[in-house]
TrEMBL record:
It is a peripheral membrane protein. GO terms for molecular function: ATP binding. Keywords: ATP-binding, Cell membrane, Membrane, Nucleotide-binding, Transport. Gene3D superfamilies: P-loop containing nucleotide triphosphate hydrolases. InterPro entries: AAA+_ATPase (IPR003593), ABC_Ni/Peptide_Import (IPR050388), ABC_transporter-like_ATP-bd (IPR003439), ABC_transporter-like_CS (IPR017871), Oligopep_ABC_C (IPR013563), P-loop_NTPase (IPR027417). Pfam families: ABC_tran, oligo_HPY. Belongs to the ABC transporter superfamily. SUPFAM superfamilies: P-loop containing nucleoside triphosphate hydrolases (SSF52540). Residues 8-262, 299-530 form the ABC transporter domain. This is ABC transporter ATP-binding protein. It comes from the Bacteria. Signal peptide: none annotated. It is found in: Cell inner membrane.
Length: 579
């Protein structure tokens, strides 16, 4: 065991009143040396997160219990302790300082009533003895290091005022502040776009080089860890089915489940694999037309709370969307892509602009634009049956739930490949992928012409993700649906999009056919976005830290920015002029 930072042997974990009867992790063994990265991969329910949570003994707070095994950890002073046998006071001295954790869901990990600055400063106070102005400066620098714009202002924000991607970067800043010997990262980049993801991976790589920190990286994105991990461990049903050096496992997988995972991963191919089943030849009707959409949020200050400045979240965005077409809106966290989607749905008030949705394309829909959200768990009311959930859109427009409505429910359930007997069941009885299918079925109840899909597959396992994408393509062909597909995953965008709009700092900087934009990007930001896409084929590329400043979206009240002119680069390819 000497020489290992962490050595786990025969780890077994169970849940429930009698955990021995509900064992979910079965005899896991692995070693981790200082400065090494171990990637633990597998789909939901494979036991990868339970294994990681067991290392720092947080699994007890989730109702789990370690049933057997040892976890020998080498502390900074060279002493070895068995994490499985330590009492709570001893564990409290190790957590945070020696073993850091980056959780998958930042909204449940951050205190909603404390400012971001207070929560980051706490880490510097606890682990480095800082106080006052010193802790404040360190907190600001921590935010700047994870590429959050307007870091000084963000310190005063509460968690609900930041986007999901920004919150995840805050969590990473807090974990890195303690400079732990072992860092456990549980899907730390799931909510992040590729450029910020590349920055975070670069930060983690730099941290490893500078501090010799060991890293356990839990993910379902094998393409992401291919460029960072030294070793990989594949889990299925609570067991390790394959582990070894990263290149050996990826190039010559031995287990059928590993082969299945690798086949399901969307492979980015610079536009070679885009869909070509739709053309803008004028035969299809226009489903959505957006002109000059601008969204600004006032920043109030002073005793009378007057608007002293505005956050220019979306600035003069224009595009159209044809029936049967998918327009992917891509850009980094904070670029305005989700705000654009919400403004189209009326969930955010537009400062100005025109939004016209076709109400006649599919039978005079009451609500021609419907939305499928990122997290199916948060989108479905756990107290309602599936029948009640599907009935909600109809009730919202004043319709009665009659036999025709029930027939529509059954029809849509079958169309999203769920049995008709799902109607009396509750959301918790379905898997994550099935819940997202339910969300899609609900969005179709009012026969819309446009679906807005906001990161609709990012929370799904790769094989489930592939099936949902196939389903969306089938539904589009069958019903002539138009999709506004908001995503940070360029490999997924390549698979689903006909056209792409690239958003940067609230403005569209490039737009055109997916094949043209991905194969021949013209704007510098689009080039940066595409070059940062991780994949198995690009596994040896180095994640570099981009030191360029992120532009602030805050402007003085009354300020009207200039918009760079469009430059044409082909029949359906425009990019903003630069410099």
């Amino acid at each position: 065991m000497t020489g290992h930072l962490l050595s786990v042997r025969d780890l077994r974990v169970g849940f429930g009143k009698v955990p021995e009867d509900n064992e979910v992790v079965h005899g896991v063994d692995f070693d981790l040396t200082a400065g090494e990265t171990l990637a633990i991969v597998g789909e939901s329910g494979s036991g990868k997160s339970v294994t990681a949570m067991s290392v720092n003994r947080l699994i007890g707070y989730s109702g789990g219990r370690i049933l057997g095994g040892s976890m020998m950890f080498t502390r900074s002073d060279g002493t070895q302790v068995d994490l499985a046998a330590l009492d709570e006071p001893a564990l409290e001295k190790i957590r945070g300082r020696d073993i850091g954790m980056i959780f998958q869901e930042p909204m449940t990990s951050l205190n909603p009533v404390l400012t971001i600055g207070t929560q980051i400063e706490e880490s510097f106070r606890l682990h480095h003895g800082m106080s006052g102005a010193g802790a404040r400066v360190a907190a600001r620098e921590a935010l700047e290091r994870v590429r959050i714009p307007d870091a000084e202002r963000r310190l005063a924000n509460a968690p609900h005022q930041l986007s999901g991607g920004m919150l995840q970067r805050v969590m990473i800043a807090i974990a890195l502040a303690a400079q732990p010997r072992l860092l456990i990262a549980d899907e730390p980049t799931t909510a992040l776009d590729v450029t910020i993801q590349a920055q975070i991976m670069g930060l983690l790589a730099e941290m490893k080089r500078e501090t010799d920190t060991g890293l356990i990286f839990i993910t379902h994105d094998i393409g992401l860890v291919a460029g960072l991990a030294d070793r990989i461990m594949v889990m299925q049903h609570g067991k390790v089915v394959e582990q070894g050096a990263i290149d050996a496992v990826l190039d010559d997988p031995q287990h059928d489940y590993t082969k299945h995972l690798l086949n399901a991963v969307p492979h980015f191919s610079d536009g070679k694999s885009v869909r070509r089943d739709h053309s803008r030849d004028g035969k299809s009707g226009r489903a959505l037309d957006v002109k000059g959409l601008t969204v600004r949020f006032p920043v109030r200050a002073g005793l009378l709370r007057r608007a002293r400045s505005n956050v220019h979240a979306v600035e003069d965005v224009s595009f159209d969307l044809m029936q049967g077409e998918t327009l992917a809106v891509v850009g980094e966290s904070g670029s305005g892509k989700s705000t654009t989607a919400r403004a189209i749905l009326g969930l955010v008030n537009a400062t100005r602009g025109e939004i016209t949705a076709d109400k006649t394309g599919l039978g005079s829909a009451d609500k021609p634009v419907q939305m499928v959200f990122q997290n199916p768990n948060a989108s479905l009311n756990p107290r309602l049956t599936i029948a009640q959930i599907l009935a909600e859109p109809l009730k919202a427009v004043g319709r009665h739930i009659d036999e025709a409505a029930r027939a529509r429910m059954v029809e849509l359930l079958e169309r999203v490949e769920l049995p008709a007997d799902s109607l009396p069941r509750y959301p918790h009885e379905f898997s994550g992928g099935q819940r997202q299918r339910l969300c899609i079925a609900r969005s179709l109840m009012l026969n819309p012409s446009v679906l807005v899909l906001d990161e609709a597959v990012s929370a799904l396992d790769v094989s489930v993700q592939a099936r949902v994408l196939d389903l969306l393509a089938d539904l589009q062909r069958e019903f002539g649906l138009a999709y506004l597909f908001v995503s940070h995953d360029m490999a997924v965008v390549e698979r689903i999009a006909h056209r792409i709009a690239v958003l940067y700092a609230g403005q569209i900087v490039e737009m055109g056919s997916a094949a043209s934009v991905l194969a021949d990007p013209r704007h510098s930001y689009t080039k940066r976005l595409i070059s940062a896409v991780p994949s198995i084929e690009r596994r040896h590329m180095e994640f570099a830290i981009d030191t360029r400043s992120v532009p602030s979206l805050m402007r003085p009240a009354g300020f009207e920015p200039d918009t760079a002119p469009w430059v044409e680069h082909g029949p359906d390819h425009l990019a903003r002029a630069e410099g």
